[in-house]
Amino acid sequence: MLKYKELQLLKEFKKIPQDKTVKVGPGDDCAVIDRGDKFLLFCGDMLIEDVHFRIREVKFKDLGYRALARVLSDIASMGGYPKYAGLSLALPPKYSSKLKEVLKGVEEITKEFNFNLVGGDLSRAKTIFLDAWCIGYVEKNNLSLRSEAKDKDGIFVTGALGLGYKENFKFSPKIKEARWLVKNCQINSMIDISDGLVLDLYRILSESKKQAILWEEFIPRAKNVPLKKALYQGEDYQLLFTAPLKEKEKIVSRGFYFIGEIKEGKKPRIFLKRRNKKIFPLELKGYFSI
User: Fold this and answer.
1) Of 33, 58, 212, 277, which is least surrounded by CB within 10 A?
2) Are 259 and 218 in contact (CB under 8 A)?
């Protein structure tokens, strides 16, 4: 089916050979490179007009901030911290005077998260296009991958779900939250929720070869948000992670939310336990880039 094309194409990227320094290639939020005492993290992301945003609904300053926030969120999902970043930007000629506003957002986020903008490119195009990349680091014992969820792990999120991209356009990447988690808890797997709780949880399950059950009553939702939006809408940029249940009290006491459990299973599937105790499988859907 067309909506699965993104997941299918990812399998083709994984076939490209890597040398021994590459611990993790395509398929996680960041590539992971062995640099001796630490792992280097590398990721990239695009922000395209009329695909990821409508210019009449956002501020140019927030475009610069968000483009880098998205790659910082990927660094956070691996348990790391950002160090260097780049941003390439293409604007239609009618918006060329807005470049300084975009750069104000870039400067704001580099100061907030203490990393360096070290390169990029400028061009013109028919629509607005931003392409960001980031290099970060993580201690070897703190690396979190999608592929290490364990049977009977608890499933957790760092905050409420269901805000749309307009309400959450200028979001704050969860670097501090991720660093606290990997330093203080046993985190077995982690991902940032960009494409929806169900779809991003499926990515953990697919890589870890597991299944999951979510409890409706425990899923935190933004004010007036229906369950369906919390499950599928995406653009939350909260962290979704799994950890042994022995860590539950510590994690919840930090203000994070327990929402379910990992189960053994031959194929990745997600089930929802309703308030009436009935259990049924959830449809795999969310935001697909292709």
Assistant:
1) 277
2) yes
